[in-house]
Amino acid sequence: MTTFDDRERAFEAKFARDEETAFRITARRNRLAAQWAADLLKLTPAEADAYAKAVVQADFEEAGDEDVVRKLFGDLTAAGLDVDEATVRRVLDEKLVEARRQLMQPE
After folding, report:
1. Rounded to an integer, what is the distance from CA 37 to the centroid of its chain?
2. What superkingdom does the record give (predicted)?
3. How distant, in Å, are the alpha carbons of 14, 29, 64, 99, 100 from that of 19?
4. What percentage of the chain carries pLDDT values higher than 90?
5. pTM of the predicted model, to two decimals?
6. Domains of the chain by range and CATH?
7. CA 80 to chain centre
8. Averaged over 48-52, what is the pLDDT?
């Protein structure tokens, strides 16, 4: 049964790596989207960095992207910017592609 056990451990290790990679891609996407919003909000570099951390942290409120969308959209509309929720979702989709590309490139 060692062959079966080895295969099982290999599948578990792959699953763990895949989950970690997905988490890193999502966190990078959120950071990139936060930088986009920080540019619109005209934040200083220090404020933009703190804001990016807040957006990444907001993703832990609930499963899915709704918490991030709510944070970005709420902050942008509270600042009086004319941005709709569809734009925020489109930016998240674009930043997901960029984040995946950044993390999957061989260094």
Report:
1. 13
2. Bacteria
3. 9, 15, 14, 15, 13
4. 69
5. 0.85
6. 26-104 (1.10.790.20)
7. 24
8. 96
